[in-house]
Amino acid sequence: MQPRNLERASSELVKVCHLAYERGYICGTEGNFSLRLDDRTLLTTPAGTCKGLLSPSDLVLTNLDGVALDSPQNQGKRPSSELKMHLIVYQKRADVMAVAHTHPTTAVAFTVAGKSLNRCVLPEAILTLGKIAEAPYATPSTDEVPQSIAEHLEHTDTILLSHHGALTFGSDIFQAFYRLETLEHQAKTLLIAQLLGGEKTLSQGQVEKLFAICQIYGMTPPTNRDELIEAGTN
Ligand SMILES: [Zn+2]
Question: In this structure, are residues 89 and 166 in contact, taking their beta carbons and an 8 Å threshold?
């Protein structure tokens, strides 16, 4: 890959950290974000810091095993213990350039309640997220987490971690953030619809039509579209 400019990449990563904090997708010192800087190097958020207050000099450089590099940028800082789940995404998906791990309240509440977000109600969410993968609960920061998501990585760019958070990824850190934003928007819309008496999904035909014309929006149908139609329409 073409190596990224450190200053530009740091600016983008910090911008997304601030947006995620301000929009309430993480609180306190929660969440972690990373991107590929070149074939051997990741740029990531440091452990134990509020992402709403982060500046480019706080970021940490690691190798693809998550080990902090001996670099003037690092100065004793260490990456998040949750970086493990980012590493397995980069190992299994050569196309992924950036990963966001967050704790969006409404989407996580659906996992706490044991309710699925895979309901075909919003065209944007259907096309952006496809079928959202749901990984079983795993103890945060342990090897259980990468193990719990491994089987899903081939089929999706959006994974919900039960009773914990979300993992979204993409071709850059903004795409990873937009997927997170769409995920939480889907969750809020479904929650309100359920408070109002329950959602009425689009029909199978309406969803298939959406996939048939989605190139108009510059999008391609998700690979798991059939599974989404089966799970998400009445
Ligand atoms: Zn977490």
Answer: no
Distance 44 CA to ligand 1 centre (A): 15
- Just give the CATH number of 6-232: 3.40.225.10
Q: How far is the CA of 26 from the centre of ligand 1 (A)?
A: 9
Measured in whole angstroms, the distance separating CA 118 from the mean position of its chain's CA atoms is 16
Are the C-beta atoms of residues 105 and 133 closer than 8 Å to each other? no
Confidence (pTM): 0.95
Region class of 201: left (phi > 0), else alpha (psi between -120 and 50), else beta: beta
Residue 90 forms beta bridges with which residues? none
C-alpha 202 to ligand 1 mean position (Å): 32
State the catalytic residues: 82
Q: C-alpha distances in angstroms, 161 versus 32, 84, 125?
A: 14, 14, 18
Q: Domain coordinates of the chain in residue numbers?
A: 6-232
- Compute the distance from residue 141 Cα to the ligand 1 centre, in Å: 8
Per run of 10 residues, the mean pLDDT along the chain (length 234 residues) is 93 98 97 97 97 96 96 91 96 97 98 98 95 94 92 95 97 98 98 98 96 89 90 92
